Amino acid sequence: MTLLLLLAVLDGLAYAALVFMVAVGLTLVFGVLRVLNVAHGSFFAIGGYVAATLGGAVATTAAAPWLALPVLLVSAILVGGLLGPVVEKLLLSRIYVKDHVLQLLVTFALFMILEDVQKLIWGVQPIFQDAAVKALGPVEVGDIVYTRYQLFLLPAVAATTLLGLMWFLRRTLTGRVIVAVTQDREAATAMGIDAARVYMLTFTFGTMLAALGGALASPTSSLVPGAGVNMIVLSFAVVATAGLGQIEGAALTALLIGLGRSVAVYFAPEFEVVIPYLIMVAVLLVRPYGLFGSPELRRV
Amino acid sequence: MRITRRAALQATIAAPLASPFILPRNAIAQQRPNELRLGISTFLSGPASVFGVPGRNAADLLIEQFNAAGGIGGVPMRSVVIDEAPGVDFLLGECRRLAQNEGVDMMLASISSGSCLAVAPLAEQLRMPTILWDCGTQRIFEENSFKYAVRTQANAVPEIVAPLLYLMRTRPDFRTLAVVNQDYAWGRDSWAIWKAAMDAIKPGVRVVAELFPRFGATDFSTEITRLQALRPDVIFSTSWGGELDTFVRQAAERRLFERSTFVLPLAESSLERVGKTLPAGVIVGSRGDHWFLHPTARDTPILKNFTEAYRRRFNQYPIYPTFHMAQALYGMKAAYEKAIAANGGRWPSREQVMDTMRGLEFAHLTGTMKIRDDGQGLEPMLMGVTRHVNEYPFPVLDQMILYPPELTMNPIGTKGLDWVRLLTPAAVQRAPAPIAYRA
Q: What distance in Å separates the CA atoms of residue A134 and residue B364, rounded to the nearest whole number?
């Protein structure tokens, strides 16, 4: 029983790490821009596709196998750095003051367009590139074989992202500027802060995080049309459970969902699919604004 | 009334123009049309497009080839393709549009069993000849009788019974089994058929885990950990597409293949993608009597030419939905040609075509098949075990057995799930001898 629980925890941690990487970008963008970005799932998928493409290029050359690992980060930076500013400038900056429903519709339209763009570029056949997993190799826990990639790298990247974000937002000038704009855009602008630039920076960073989530997922899963849909639905559940805009909440919720799911697979497999949503319903019944959320005053 | 020359001329010009609006459709259908319009529903988006697009590709290629050879009775074909991904309501609306606005003469529907269960009754309402080209549920012709729908392939019953018979032949001593199927209708239904058949043929097998990961799942690490801990003799999975690829890769990375025998009835469609990550010794099915290296048809010009043309154009080897589409088109062509011949060379009505379909025996890319009186196709099932060879960068099938429909398909008037409960171990011995892969 103890061994089973240990195994469930190890599996849950790896899954939670991936979920967190996607959800944290979504919650960061909402926290600052107040836009619920449905296209976040597309950035996840495109990050995965680019990482698989570049990873494939590395794997087919005589380059050292470990190069497949930095490729994941490079892919995320490429996707976020190229797509983030373009989407923010051309699309989102025009709808910040619009109704949330319209924002959802616009980002959903973008999601649909990007889905077709993915099919145009990468086709519909599943794409898989596991050079990064092979570079790190397997490890045994008891007589159970794990991959080092899932057991060590994914949780380490997620923990680093969480701690790095907390440090960045609380200890650096740029981070504090972002927090200031989040809390009161008018006051921050009156103090001389370029809110438009903060929005673009934040959105670009959020896009990079989504792409990094996709890049990190790509060595262990196949990329297929619709990959973004699955992840965005789960990310919404995480963000809603955590409280919109709550980074630490997203981490805790991802952990709850990851552990809950893996425990379910061991002890009640029928509930695996519904676990994230059961957790969401249970939390929202007790705390309607999410684990870390709080009611907001509406300005009339 | 006095008939003037002007009135006679006007009547001569107006009659052919007005006739389409006056005459019933059946009467029009008996005129040789300028083209034969085919409505094709398939997945062009979403995860199932891994099957839908190869199916559409096969239709494009074969229709071009048929037209270049004179079409059907001199009539060229034209396809109108619709996406079934948005759901059943959308699909039914599109089918109505194709029938009523686009003047489609025949529908080829669909991949999803849910789609077919909805389209077949609509075909009756619209009196639209419909070929069910890829969907697997056995319920369609078991629960209803359709005049305007037939299926040019087998169904879920033989697709699951054949892998079980193959497993019983290659590893009869297994005592424990785990299932990892996608959590939707196919995953659940295929497990129900397997479980019922297995309990009949080999009672006492202990099912140590029934795992149904979410449809579209991208991570199976927890399931794989549990399977490693349970160490079942056999792991059965009817998963497909990206999920099967992911499961295979993750299982290989974690050496699960070394501990259990895998039975993957749909894995023929993943062989090229997963490559030699899939080890030797895995039991693989192809949902029918087809594979580009088919044991008895691989050297026939028709299969070799098709494989070459398909590969040249789409840069992939054909997989089972490609062959299913080919079976539908070859079946349709054979039915029209037979009906034209029976009609004295005149173009047949849609009722004549559908009557001809029943009992029709036709040749396709890898052999011949027959359509039963209830509209269900009778198709052998190709099973094999993976083997690594130098000629291909992916596993090929070895020790192939073509299970005849008499061994794997329930007779007309019976229900598949009830019929498999009557199977006996004797069925295992009645299978033909295996055919080895040859380079």
A: 43
Same structural domain, B55 and B100: yes
What ipTM was predicted for this assembly?
0.79
pTM of the model: 0.83
Task: Specify the number of domains making up chain B.
Answer: 2
Contact: B225, A144; criterion CB under 8 Å = yes
Question: Is residue B42 located within the same domain as residue B171?
Answer: no
What is the domain range of residue B345? 32-154+300-375
Q: Report phi then psi at B107, rounded to 5.
A: -105, 140
Domain endpoint, select from B329, B349, B375: B375
Give the architecture-level CATH label for domain A2-286: Orthogonal Bundle (1.10)
Strand partners, B396: B387
User: What is the structure's pLDDT at B25?
Assistant: 45
Query: Which pair of tokens denotes residue B77?
Result: 């074909």
Same domain for B105 and B234: no
| Domain-located, residue B18 | no
Among the ranges given (A94-108, B292-306, B401-415), the one the predictor scored with the smallest mean pLDDT: A94-108
| Residues of chain B with C-beta less than 8 angstroms from the C-beta of A144 | 225, 228-229
pLDDT at A98: 87
Quick: pLDDT tens for B34-86. Answer: 999 999 999 988 778 889 999 999 999 999 999 999 999 999 999 999 999 88
Quick one: which H or E segment has residue B266? none
Binding-face residues of A in 99-138 toward B, CB within 8 A: 115-116, 119, 123-126, 128, 130, 133-134, 138
B148 in the same domain as B52 = yes
In a domain, B27, yes or no: no
Angle between helices B241-253 and B49-68 (to 10 degrees): 120
The dihedral region occupied by B350, where left means phi > 0, alpha psi between -120 and 50, and beta the remainder, is: alpha
Cβ of residue A155 closer than 8 Å to a chain B Cβ: no
Q: Please determine, for residue B413, whether its predicted confidence score (pLDDT) is greater than 90.
A: yes
Is B434 within the bounds of a domain?
no
All residues at 6 or more sequence positions from A113 whose CB lies less than 8 Å from its CB, including other chains: none
The answer on B139 and B59 residing in a single domain is: yes
Give the CATH number for residue B40. Answer: 3.40.50.2300
Q: Is B400 helix (H, G, I), strand (E, B) or coil?
A: strand
Confidence band, pLDDT 50/70/90 cuts, at residue B21:
very low
Please give the sequence-ordered ranges of beta strands (E in DSSP) within B1-50, or none if there are none: 36-42
Per CB-CB distance under 8 Å, the chain B contacts of A4 are: 229
